[in-house]
Amino acid sequence: MDQINNHPLYRIHSIDSAMNSLWDFYKQKFVPLFIISFIMGLILQYLSTFINISELQSVTDINEIMLKLKDYVWPMILVSVVSLLFTTILNYYVIYNPLDRENNFFRCLLNSLRYFFPYLIIMIFLAIAGSFALILGLLILFVGVLFAAIYVMTLYLFILPILMVEGPSIANTISRTVVLAHRNFWSNMGWTAVFLIILLVISVILSGFILLPFTGSFFKAFADPSEAASLVEITTKPLYIILSAVLNAITMPLLPIYACILYFNGRAREDQQYSPEPAKDETEGKIRVEDLYAKPTPEDEKE
Asked: pLDDT, tens digit, for every residue of 61-86?
């Protein structure tokens, strides 16, 4: 197995080195990560067209609404599963491609499948635990919900790197996630908060550019509220699907890269903490018998 400490992201990071490493790795691997994420975006956008929420706007009967929502259950599950699959592939590529150039997209696709089902099961547990955390966060209003959301996100980011580096064991992954996330807890939370803010700002700016071709539809909806349903139809247009896939391809690779930085930072600190100290020479500092006598000079050796 490849030595994980040879990975370019493996080191003890500060917030500055973490963001610098994120940007450097992103630039170095931009093309393959963009292509993988673009394909993912196209597939997800296409699958999302089967979830037509605009149909519910004209329905007033609660029973009919519930029946229509049931029709959307399987498309929503399919979108979630495909999203998790591509996330698994991206994480595997980010971890193992720098260690071996032969780990191209297709090899990463095949090798990542062994981690997908454990990841899926862990995500179900995390979704349940995260729901309880958010509910508890509501007790202290916005600050509590925000803290709970960042905490759950921090846990989530550790899952796939641990699963892929330390083995596809569900129990070990859950326990190691808790250990590494809570070690340097405030640093992990703070870095994740900064990363999410940066990602949110980038997404908002890029979303504005994506919606520029559809500005006319927005003005039309504001002028005539009865045309609001046309805004939902924008998401089914081919141009919107392609532009959304481009947005996804630009921002999506940042998540697995940052997740690896978090994990490798925790691993590097852990390895340094538990690495054995070099053995000391027991004779160092002690007076030896030969030290009591003067060493021969070159003149003495000639005689």
From this structure: 666 666 766 777 787 888 889 999 99
Distance CA(233)–CA(131), nearest Å, equals: 31
What does the alpha-carbon distance between residue 291 and residue 203 come to, in Å, rounded to a whole number? 72
- Positions in the chain whose pLDDT score sits under 70: 1-2, 52-66, 68-69, 140-142, 214-233, 235, 275-303
| Amino acid of residue 197 | I
Whole-angstrom distance, CA of residue 7 vs CA of residue 211: 39
pTM listed for this prediction: 0.81
Taking each helix axis from N to C end, the angle separating 185-211 and 254-274, rounded to the nearest 10 degrees, works out to 170
> What's the CA gap between 297 and 293, in Å, rounded?
12
Residue % of the chain over a pLDDT of 90: 44
**Nearby residues of 250 by Cβ (< 8 Å), 6 or more positions away:** 34, 37, 202, 206
Neighbours of 185 (CB within 10 A): 11
Dist. CA 138–CA 132, nearest whole Å: 10
Instruction: Tell which residue, 152, 172, 153, 154, has the closest CA to residue 162.
Output: 172
Where does the chain show beta strands of DSSP type E? none
For the chain, the residue count is 303
Q: In this predicted structure, what is the pLDDT of residue 240?
A: 79
List of residues 6+ apart from 196 with CB closer than 8 A? 150, 153
Query: Which of 201, 213, 205, 200 shows the shortest CA–CA distance to 243?
Result: 213
DSSP 51-107: --GGGGGG---HHHHHHHHHHTHHHHHHHHHHHHHHHHHHHHHHHHTTT-TT--HHH
**How far apart (Å, rounded) are the C-alpha atoms in residues 197 and 191?**
10
Number of Cβ atoms within 10 Å of the Cβ of 97 = 18
Write the DSSP string, 117-155.
HHHHHHHHHHHHHHHHHHHHHHTTHHHHHHHHHHHHHHH
CB 111 within 8 A of CB 99: no
